[in-house]
Design goal:
- GO terms for molecular function: alkaline phosphatase activity.
- Keywords: Hydrolase.
- Its EC number is 3.1.3.1.
- It is a single chain.
- This protein is of the alpha+beta class.
- The chain has a single domain, classed as Purple Acid Phosphatase, chain A, domain 2 (4-Layer Sandwich).
- The protein contains 16 helices and 24 strands.
- The strands form six sheets. A seven-stranded mixed beta sheet has the order 13-14-17-18-20-19-21, with no helix packed on it. Strands 12-11-10-22-23-24 form a six-stranded mixed beta sheet. The chain has a four-stranded antiparallel beta sheet with strand order 3-2-7-8, with no helix packed on it.
- A hairpin with a 2-residue loop joins strand 22 and strand 23.
- Helix 3 runs antiparallel to helix 4, helix 7 crosses helix 10 and helix 9 packs antiparallel against helix 10.
- The radius of gyration is 23 Å and the shape is globular.
- The two termini are 27 Å apart.
Length: 528
């Protein structure tokens, strides 16, 4: 998606030519499918569009019209960016689908789609939909997913009650994105970008070197990790790249070539996915897009972690060098999306930094073993649990915010999910020309329950931070290089947030469907 281009992603039932057409607007583009593990996909690139276009389109496979379906929804549209310098990004994370309202509440993404459907041009549309993690839950299955798996293997065959391979993942995506007509229509109309988090693969994915060692000792893990990463590359990551990046991508070229010559590129996809897991530097999942005076950087904080017996980093060296290069001034606004919040409530931040130090040996070998068990049991694996990475990003952000890398942006905002509640945190020290904030919106549909909700509510309070900072100090963790305070929230409802950027202004709005399924405003704040 840009001012003049768009890409339509399609999955078909058989190999074919896919065409996207609108005769009135002169749109007629096509692509051949490629095949992986018996599934067929195409990406149709459309060029020469006008800025601010709203072009209804049809999809044909081998000349037969297959989309849009006669389901009561408006025609799908190609929507390009306008040239007025404004941008509206709606985002969220952590969406369980399918499921009942009693289990997970109303779906914020479906409610958002229904409002756009009903309101048409009378309501404000997002220019971009950004989903920042846990688009599917491969380790917490719905009844529909269990029934699908039951038709393929026994209920006790490992990994029990979890997705096992690429085929299982394709059904997870079908349930999440095709099962709800409103969401399917939304994804066919609003340009969408994504990044994975742990449940897209497995809870605590890459939390530590010990975790990785344990997983690769399991005989079923190879099929699971290759299926998870390979399906993510097809169902999510292909849409994150620009047309130019896809055209030069060696994996995309290899898959299309193998599909044409052998009929199925599954083996090529598996080889790539296994290497991406075992050699993180071999693949970059992070990406960046510039839209006028706005830069969006989306950071992979899962697959590209540096996890060895001697070193631990949220990003490997190559990935951090790339991020460092992207963090530049000269923009009106800099947005850094990470599935994991960079700025957490103080109590949680200090607890995680303490735990990293203890697991690293600050309190001896026995303490390290206990620390690792706590790390995995309590999910202590955010940026705070990678102290050096946290400090490195802080140095980048402060340098940009002080105008040391070009004119300082009006705002620098982190966009995140994962933590299952929403809030706004503002950086207070050191001083910068840019306003620096952490915007969290989570979950789209998977709220915290019971004691977990109350524990996080307590941790969010200002008073809870002191004792955990003392604990971190006893483990010789240095004082964080920046200070921040929680200013809005916490909100524990299913929600979707929208960041609105215009000129040097940046505003954010959170909305929830928790009463009756229709979106209502939950919070609003001005970043600048």
């Amino acid at each position: 998606m840009s001012h003049r281009t768009a890409t339509i992603w399609v999955e078909t039932e058989r190999p074919c030519e896919v065409r996207v057409v609108n005769e009135e607007h002169g749109v007629d583009a096509s692509a051949r499918t490629f095949t992986a593990h018996g599934h067929h996909y195409a990406l149709v690139e459309i060029e020469g569009l006008a800025p601010g276009s709203r072009v209804p389109y049809e999809v044909l496979t081998d000349g037969e019209a297959v989309w849009p379906e006669d389901d009561g929804f408006p025609p799908s549209q190609i929507r390009t960016l306008g040239d007025d310098g404004k941008l509206r990004i709606s985002f969220g994370s952590c969406r369980r689908s399918p499921g009942t309202v009693e289990e997970f509440g109303y779906d914020a993404l479906a409610a958002f789609a229904e409002r756009l459907r009903a309101g048409g041009d009378a309501v404000a549309w997002p220019d971009v939909l950004l989903m920042v993690g846990d688009q599917v839950y491969a380790d917490e299955l719905s009844d529909e997913m269990r029934a699908f798996i039951g038709g393929r293997r026994g209920p006790d065959e490992p990994p029990a009650d979890e997705a096992a391979d690429f085929e299982d993942y394709t059904h997870l995506y079908k349930l999440a994105w095709h099962g709800d007509p409103a969401v399917r229509w939304l994804l066919s109309t609003v340009p969408t970008f994504t990044i994975f988090d742990d449940h897209d693969i497995r809870d605590d994915w890459n939390t530590s070197y010990a975790w990785r060692t344990e997983m690769w000792s399991q005989p079923w893990w190879k099929d699971r990790i290759t299926g998870g990463i390979g399906s993510y590359w097809i169902y999510q990551h292909l849409g994150n790249m620009s047309p130019q990046e896809r055209a030069s991508d060696p994996v995309f070229e290899a898959l299309r070539k193998a599909s044409d010559t052998t009929g199925d590129a599954g083996a090529v996809l598996d080889e790539f996915a296994e290497k991406a897991d075992k050699e993180p530097a071999s693949t970059r999942w992070s990406y960046a897009h510039d839209w006028g005076g706005i830069r969006l950087i989306v950071v992979d904080s899962r697959c590209s972690r540096l996890l060895t017996a001697d070193r631990r980093g949220m990003l490997d060296d190559e990935e951090f060098e790339w991020l460092n290069g992207q963090c530049q001034g000269g923009m009106d606004h800099l947005l850094i999306a990470s599935s994991l919040p960079y700025l957490l409530p103080k109590a949680i931040h200090h607890a995680e930094s303490w735990n990293e130090a203890v697991a690293g040996g600050a309190w001896g070998k026995r303490g390290a073993g206990i620390g690792e068990k706590i790390r995995q049991a309590a999910d202590l694996e955010h940026w705070a649990a990678f102290e050096k990475s946290f400090r490195d990003v802080a140095a980048d952000v402060v340098a940009v915010g002080r105008g040391e890398r070009g004119t300082a942006p009006a705002s620098i905002s982190f966009l995140s999910g994962d933590i299952h509640y929403s809030y706004l945190a503002r950086v207070t020290e050191p001083g910068t020309q840019s306003k620096v904030a952490q915007i969290v919106c989570s979950p789209l549909r998977n709220p915290l329950q019971g004691r977990f909700k109350w524990a996080n509510r307590i941790a969010y309070s200002r008073a809870a931070g002191g004792p955990f900072r003392l604990l971190a100090k006893l483990a010789k963790v240095p004082v964080p290089p920046i200070r921040w305070r929680m200013t809005d929230g916490p909100w524990f409802h299913n929600a979707i947030a929208t960041v609105e950027l215009a000129g040097r202004d940046c505003n954010v709005r959170w909305e929830t469907p928790y009463r009756g399924g229709e979106l209502t405003e939950m919070g609003r704040a001005s970043i600048t």
